[in-house]
Known about the structure:
Layout: E1 4-8, H1 22-30, E2 34-39, H2 50-58, E3 61-66, H3 79-99, E4 103-106, H4 120-144, E5 147-150, H5 164-174, E6 179-184, H6 185-191, H7 195-202, E7 206-210, H8 226-235, E8 241-244, H9 252-257, H10 268-283
Parallel strand pairs: 1-2, 1-8, 2-3, 3-4, 4-5, 5-6, 6-7, 7-8
Helix pairs in contact: 1-2, 3-4, 4-5, 5-7, 7-8
Amino acid sequence: MSIALGINSWVWTSPMSDASAELIYRAKAMGFDAFEIAVEDPAHFAADGAVTHALRETGLKPIVCGAFGPTRDLTHEDERFRRESITYIRGALALAQAWGSTVLAGPVYSAVGKRRQLPDAQRKIEWQRAVVGLREAGKIAADAGVTLAIEPLNRFETDLVNTSAQAVRLVDEVGSSAVKIHLDTFHMHIEEKSLLEAIRLAGPRLAHVHGCENDRGAPGTGLVAWAQVAQGLREVGYNGAVVIESFTPECKAIADAAAIWRPLAATQDALASEGLKFLRGLLR
């Protein structure tokens, strides 16, 4: 099992841009293998800008993480917003291709924070919109040589895909080799009966993993069943990246979106370095 250990830019900043490229050098100095760039707006990056140079100079494995706000929603009843979603995904994929990232991860199917009680008929309509939208996005991803890794979120952040089983169903209905699954232990800790069984179920469809603690603090400091995570990744032969995703309370907009109301570690650097040390011991 060869796993790259990474860190998401949201640990330190929001929004990530070329002006934040120093974080890539910081991650390299800490000993990370990969750097996950949260692309809130593709316009924040130049094709041959500071982030591109930092990735080239450090040799860190690049990963692109999507940000899906209210107008980036493949299930939206207004086609204008479904088209806006495709436009955003196309831009994020162009950056992934330019940087050499083989993955665009996140809840690509719908906007984060969309949670409602719906009649079954309406739920089926939105599910089918997600399937149709992901088929189109999957074609664009395949042409770029990138895999879309769709992420189940907990019930407080989406009402469409909460579990590995639902993600498997969605991916299988999309039927594209460029559309796979992204599992996040923070969400899994809330929604799954067994982290081991959830990873087994994803199996060969698993393209990306966020290794996050139940409180978004440093991995290894909370309640996540990490032994199950390690066993599951070994069993399915996972050889992608495991990335720490957390958020800084210093950036109020992202802290509000992620419900971060207090510091989760002494410093964000401490969260990153302590989490890396734990994951290295767990997965190496």
